[in-house]
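request received
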Amino acid sequence: MENKARERELLLSWEKGAVLPREFYCRDTVQVARELLGQVLVYHSPRGVAGGVIVETEAYLQGDPACHASRGQTPRNRVMFGPAGHAYIYFIYGMHYCFNIVTAAIGVGEAVLIRALEPLCGIELMQERRRRSDLRQLCRGPACLVQALGLDRSLNGAPVYKPPLLVYRGLAVSAENIVVTTRIGIKEGAGLPLRFYLRGSRFVSRP
DNA sequence: ATGATGATTAACT
DNA sequence: GTTAATCATCATG
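response:
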Protein backbone atom coordinates (compact mmCIF):
# COMPACT_ATOMS: atom_id res chain seq x y z
CA MET A 1 0.00 0.00 0.00
CA GLU A 2 1.36 3.42 -0.87
CA ASN A 3 -0.94 4.89 1.76
CA LYS A 4 0.63 2.82 4.51
CA ALA A 5 3.94 4.64 4.35
CA ARG A 6 2.19 8.00 4.29
CA GLU A 7 -0.04 7.04 7.19
CA ARG A 8 2.96 5.91 9.20
CA GLU A 9 4.82 9.12 8.53
CA LEU A 10 1.85 11.23 9.60
CA LEU A 11 1.11 9.09 12.63
CA LEU A 12 4.70 9.51 13.74
CA SER A 13 4.52 13.29 13.52
CA TRP A 14 1.28 13.19 15.45
CA GLU A 15 2.68 11.05 18.24
CA LYS A 16 5.79 13.18 18.56
CA GLY A 17 3.98 16.49 18.37
CA ALA A 18 2.43 18.47 21.18
CA VAL A 19 -1.18 19.56 21.49
CA LEU A 20 -1.60 23.11 20.22
CA PRO A 21 -2.12 25.39 23.24
CA ARG A 22 -5.18 27.54 23.80
CA GLU A 23 -3.06 30.60 22.92
CA PHE A 24 -2.65 29.36 19.36
CA TYR A 25 -6.24 30.34 18.67
CA CYS A 26 -6.23 33.75 20.40
CA ARG A 27 -4.84 35.42 17.30
CA ASP A 28 -5.78 36.83 13.93
CA THR A 29 -8.37 34.47 12.47
CA VAL A 30 -6.88 34.39 8.97
CA GLN A 31 -3.49 33.55 10.44
CA VAL A 32 -5.01 30.74 12.50
CA ALA A 33 -6.91 29.42 9.47
CA ARG A 34 -3.67 29.26 7.50
CA GLU A 35 -1.65 27.72 10.31
CA LEU A 36 -4.25 25.06 11.05
CA LEU A 37 -3.35 23.46 7.72
CA GLY A 38 -1.10 20.48 8.41
CA GLN A 39 -2.20 20.14 12.03
CA VAL A 40 -3.90 16.97 13.22
CA LEU A 41 -7.50 16.92 14.49
CA VAL A 42 -8.36 13.94 16.68
CA TYR A 43 -11.55 12.98 18.51
CA HIS A 44 -11.58 10.26 21.16
CA SER A 45 -15.16 9.12 20.79
CA PRO A 46 -16.80 6.48 22.99
CA ARG A 47 -16.38 4.09 20.07
CA GLY A 48 -12.70 4.84 19.53
CA VAL A 49 -10.18 7.35 18.22
CA ALA A 50 -10.42 8.91 14.78
CA GLY A 51 -8.76 11.85 13.16
CA GLY A 52 -6.74 13.30 10.34
CA VAL A 53 -4.58 16.09 9.00
CA ILE A 54 -6.39 19.36 8.38
CA VAL A 55 -6.08 20.12 4.67
CA GLU A 56 -8.80 22.75 4.10
CA THR A 57 -10.11 25.64 6.21
CA GLU A 58 -12.22 28.78 5.89
CA ALA A 59 -12.09 31.95 7.98
CA TYR A 60 -15.28 33.70 9.16
CA LEU A 61 -14.72 37.23 10.37
CA GLN A 62 -16.40 40.02 12.25
CA GLY A 63 -18.13 42.35 9.77
CA ASP A 64 -18.18 39.56 7.20
CA PRO A 65 -21.80 39.03 6.04
CA ALA A 66 -21.27 35.28 5.65
CA CYS A 67 -20.23 34.94 9.29
CA HIS A 68 -22.92 33.60 11.64
CA ALA A 69 -21.84 36.15 14.23
CA SER A 70 -22.02 39.17 11.93
CA ARG A 71 -25.58 40.08 12.94
CA GLY A 72 -25.05 39.86 16.65
CA GLN A 73 -25.17 37.19 19.29
CA THR A 74 -27.98 34.60 19.36
CA PRO A 75 -28.36 31.35 21.28
CA ARG A 76 -26.98 29.44 18.32
CA ASN A 77 -23.79 31.43 17.74
CA ARG A 78 -23.01 32.30 21.34
CA VAL A 79 -19.88 30.13 21.56
CA MET A 80 -18.36 32.16 18.73
CA PHE A 81 -18.27 35.09 21.14
CA GLY A 82 -16.67 33.04 23.88
CA PRO A 83 -13.03 32.10 24.41
CA ALA A 84 -10.86 30.96 21.49
CA GLY A 85 -9.88 27.34 21.12
CA HIS A 86 -13.39 25.98 21.62
CA ALA A 87 -15.53 24.05 19.16
CA TYR A 88 -18.46 25.78 17.46
CA ILE A 89 -20.67 23.04 16.04
CA TYR A 90 -23.91 23.92 14.29
CA PHE A 91 -26.73 22.08 12.54
CA ILE A 92 -27.53 23.00 8.94
CA TYR A 93 -29.83 21.96 6.07
CA GLY A 94 -31.90 19.84 8.40
CA MET A 95 -29.37 17.02 8.42
CA HIS A 96 -25.73 18.10 8.65
CA TYR A 97 -23.32 19.42 11.24
CA CYS A 98 -20.27 21.61 10.66
CA PHE A 99 -17.25 21.96 12.94
CA ASN A 100 -15.44 25.25 13.63
CA ILE A 101 -12.77 26.39 16.04
CA VAL A 102 -13.41 29.73 17.71
CA THR A 103 -10.62 32.29 17.30
CA ALA A 104 -9.67 35.82 18.38
CA ALA A 105 -10.52 37.60 21.63
CA ILE A 106 -13.58 37.06 23.81
CA GLY A 107 -16.48 39.14 22.48
CA VAL A 108 -15.22 38.95 18.89
CA GLY A 109 -17.36 36.49 16.93
CA GLU A 110 -14.84 34.84 14.62
CA ALA A 111 -14.02 31.21 13.82
CA VAL A 112 -12.33 28.82 11.41
CA LEU A 113 -14.45 26.20 9.63
CA ILE A 114 -12.65 22.89 9.15
CA ARG A 115 -13.63 21.70 5.67
CA ALA A 116 -11.54 18.60 5.00
CA LEU A 117 -9.10 16.15 6.58
CA GLU A 118 -6.64 13.64 5.26
CA PRO A 119 -7.64 10.50 7.20
CA LEU A 120 -4.92 9.40 9.60
CA CYS A 121 -6.21 7.23 12.42
CA GLY A 122 -9.39 5.35 13.19
CA ILE A 123 -9.86 4.73 9.50
CA GLU A 124 -11.98 1.59 9.90
CA LEU A 125 -14.27 3.40 12.31
CA MET A 126 -14.61 6.33 9.90
CA GLN A 127 -15.30 3.98 7.02
CA GLU A 128 -18.09 2.43 9.03
CA ARG A 129 -19.60 5.77 10.04
CA ARG A 130 -19.44 7.12 6.51
CA ARG A 131 -20.47 3.84 4.92
CA ARG A 132 -17.68 4.30 2.44
CA SER A 133 -14.30 2.64 2.08
CA ASP A 134 -12.55 5.11 -0.24
CA LEU A 135 -10.22 7.22 1.93
CA ARG A 136 -10.90 10.23 -0.27
CA GLN A 137 -14.60 10.17 0.54
CA LEU A 138 -14.18 9.93 4.31
CA CYS A 139 -13.47 13.53 5.42
CA ARG A 140 -13.95 15.49 2.20
CA GLY A 141 -16.35 18.28 3.14
CA PRO A 142 -17.27 19.89 6.48
CA ALA A 143 -20.30 17.71 7.20
CA CYS A 144 -18.48 14.58 6.04
CA LEU A 145 -15.61 14.98 8.48
CA VAL A 146 -18.02 15.60 11.35
CA GLN A 147 -19.80 12.36 10.50
CA ALA A 148 -16.53 10.46 10.08
CA LEU A 149 -15.16 11.57 13.44
CA GLY A 150 -18.49 11.05 15.21
CA LEU A 151 -18.78 14.66 16.41
CA ASP A 152 -22.17 15.94 17.55
CA ARG A 153 -23.91 18.82 19.31
CA SER A 154 -22.75 17.70 22.73
CA LEU A 155 -19.26 18.92 21.76
CA ASN A 156 -20.45 22.43 20.96
CA GLY A 157 -18.35 24.69 23.21
CA ALA A 158 -15.82 22.00 24.11
CA PRO A 159 -12.13 23.00 24.07
CA VAL A 160 -9.93 21.55 21.32
CA TYR A 161 -6.77 21.52 23.46
CA LYS A 162 -7.78 18.77 25.86
CA PRO A 163 -9.51 15.39 25.61
CA PRO A 164 -11.66 14.20 24.08
CA LEU A 165 -11.06 16.79 21.34
CA LEU A 166 -7.46 17.54 20.42
CA VAL A 167 -5.51 19.37 17.74
CA TYR A 168 -1.90 18.20 17.61
CA ARG A 169 0.98 20.04 16.03
CA GLY A 170 1.63 18.34 12.71
CA LEU A 171 3.85 19.11 9.78
CA ALA A 172 4.73 22.75 9.13
CA VAL A 173 3.31 24.15 5.88
CA SER A 174 5.11 26.87 3.96
CA ALA A 175 3.22 29.79 2.42
CA GLU A 176 3.88 28.53 -1.10
CA ASN A 177 2.03 25.32 -0.26
CA ILE A 178 -1.13 27.15 0.79
CA VAL A 179 -3.71 27.90 -1.89
CA VAL A 180 -5.88 30.94 -1.09
CA THR A 181 -9.29 31.14 -2.73
CA THR A 182 -12.98 31.94 -2.17
CA ARG A 183 -15.28 30.20 0.26
CA ILE A 184 -17.86 27.60 -0.73
CA GLY A 185 -21.62 27.62 -0.33
CA ILE A 186 -22.20 31.22 0.72
CA LYS A 187 -24.09 34.03 -1.01
CA GLU A 188 -22.92 37.21 0.68
CA GLY A 189 -19.21 37.67 1.17
CA ALA A 190 -18.43 35.30 -1.70
CA GLY A 191 -15.37 36.58 -3.49
CA LEU A 192 -13.41 37.19 -0.32
CA PRO A 193 -10.13 35.22 -0.26
CA LEU A 194 -10.84 33.38 2.98
CA ARG A 195 -10.55 29.72 2.01
CA PHE A 196 -7.25 27.93 2.41
CA TYR A 197 -6.09 24.48 1.40
CA LEU A 198 -2.94 22.42 1.05
CA ARG A 199 -1.60 22.66 -2.47
CA GLY A 200 -1.84 19.33 -4.23
CA SER A 201 -3.86 17.56 -1.55
CA ARG A 202 -6.27 15.00 -2.98
CA PHE A 203 -8.40 15.25 0.13
CA VAL A 204 -9.79 18.79 -0.29
CA SER A 205 -13.54 19.15 -0.90
CA ARG A 206 -12.99 21.16 -4.08
CA PRO A 207 -9.77 22.41 -5.75
C1' DA B 1 -47.27 30.98 15.71
C1' DT B 2 -45.46 31.06 11.10
C1' DG B 3 -42.37 31.13 7.19
C1' DA B 4 -37.87 31.56 4.92
C1' DT B 5 -33.55 29.86 4.84
C1' DG B 6 -29.04 27.60 5.04
C1' DA B 7 -20.68 27.79 5.99
C1' DT B 8 -24.22 20.45 2.61
C1' DT B 9 -24.35 16.07 0.49
C1' DA B 10 -25.48 12.35 -2.57
C1' DA B 11 -27.62 11.01 -6.40
C1' DC B 12 -29.20 12.25 -10.46
C1' DT B 13 -29.23 14.01 -15.95
C1' DG C 1 -25.12 21.16 -13.84
C1' DT C 2 -29.47 20.20 -11.15
C1' DT C 3 -32.12 18.78 -7.22
C1' DA C 4 -34.25 16.42 -3.22
C1' DA C 5 -33.62 15.54 1.46
C1' DT C 6 -35.02 17.73 5.98
C1' DC C 7 -35.38 20.84 10.27
C1' DA C 8 -33.26 24.07 13.86
C1' DT C 9 -32.92 28.72 14.00
C1' DC C 10 -34.29 33.37 13.66
C1' DA C 11 -36.90 37.41 12.23
C1' DT C 12 -41.40 38.85 11.99
C1' DG C 13 -46.22 39.32 13.41
